[in-house]
Design brief:
Layout lengths: L4 H15 L6 H5 L8 E7 L1 H4 L23 H9 L3 E5 L7 H5 L36 E5 L2 H4 L1 H12 L8 H6 L3 H22 L4 E5 L25 H23 L5 E4 L34 H20 L2
Parallel strand pairs: 1-2, 1-3, 3-4, 4-5
Helix pairs in contact: 1-11, 4-11, 9-10
């Protein structure tokens, strides 16, 4: 589709301003008639994209499909910011694996987690997320990999194993360390296959691989043992292990796979969130429970999604200004 020179300059200038820290010129973009409805964006991903928890807003779809997309998740925030510039299709879904994005129908769980039954569960399967992508798609954002790694499984087991430990030892590391390299290898293999599939379905699209934010601080002494607004009974040693050997390598695996594709760019969220972990006063990721004592299970809140929206917006504007 045709892009005017004025539109390209507007987009490029706005991207530069955003990158420099002026994170609110996007309303100006929505007012540009030449760019209105010119670009198609598909948002793919797991719960870190969908929102899922109450601290990330309200589920807005009626009837619910169990994917738990919330109105303050970063795709929805960007959609409001950019106005009519980009048409968003958001098919992200809580609990999604890389295979659920690529080729496999997913059975969403809603908020049906241990200790919290969802009255609408079970939900019908939803199609593979890649089905929302087509030859007319201009931008694809995808934030996925944690469920392929099995982070939720590991987190629940760490909570269980840490109970009664009085914060000593590394019981979770002892249980899972041997399996982590294989899990990370699967993330890389599946991610490569996903990127190839997305490129096949949308050859002209720019793919933005969105990484995960910082969840655990480098100084785990800031985390209070048995505080469920943080990591509950997970030991300090296990938190160090989770950060160094599980979560940081997960981001690196995603970045490495992204780097193999000319049409893909990695969006780093870890650096900008280092001082906003679960254990920080100004937290952008909730702990096991949020401040209202509702289950959050270590997911970004509205501040975390706002930060993600700012960084992903820059990447989107750079992508479409280059077309």
């Amino acid at each position: 589709m045709a892009r005017s020179f004025r539109t390209r300059l507007t987009l490029l200038g706005s991207a530069t301003a955003l990158a420099a820290g002026a994170l609110a010129p996007v309303q100006l973009l929505g007012a540009q008639p030449a760019a209105a409805a010119s670009y198609e964006w598909v948002a793919l991903g797991d719960s870190y994209t969908a929102g899922v928890i109450q601290a990330a807003g309200d589920v807005f779809e009626v009837p619910r499909d169990g994917c738990e997309r919330t109105d303050r998740s970063y795709p929805q925030a960007i959609d409001r910011d950019l106005g009519a510039l980009i048409e968003l299709t958001n098919v992200s879904c809580g609990g999604a694996t890389i295979e659920d994005v690529t080729f496999r129908a997913q059975s969403p769980i809603g908020r049906n987690v241990p200790g919290s039954e969802d009255p609408d569960y079970p939900f019908p399967p939803v199609p593979p997320q890649s089905e929302a992508v087509n030859a007319g798609t201009d931008v694809i954002t995808v934030g996925v990999g944690g469920n392929t790694l099995g982070f939720g499984e590991i987190l629940f087991k760490c909570l269980e194993l840490g109970s009664g430990s009085e914060g000593a030892g590394t019981p979770c590391k002892d249980a899972f360390a041997e399996s982590v390299p294989g899990r990370l290898a699967k993330v890389g293999t599946d991610y490569n296959a996903m990127l190839a599939k997305l490129h096949e379905k949308a050859p002209k699209a720019k793919i933005l691989s969105v990484g995960y934010p910082t969840v655990i601080p480098k100084e785990t002494s800031r985390c209070r043992y048995n505080d469920f607004h943080q990591f509950g009974p997970i030991t300090s040693g296990d938190l160090d292990w989770l950060r160094q050997d599980v979560l940081d390598p997960l981001n690196k695996a995603i970045e490495k796979s992204t780097g193999t594709q000319d049409t893909a760019t990695f969006v780093n969220l870890a650096d900008s969130t280092q001082k906003h972990s679960v254990c920080d006063t100004s937290k952008w990721v909730e702990g096991v429970l949020d401040s209202d004592n509702k289950l959050a299970l270590v997911h970004p809140n509205t501040y975390g999604h706002r930060n993600a929206a700012d960084h992903v917006t820059v990447a989107i504007l750079n992508a479409i200004s280059a077309n």
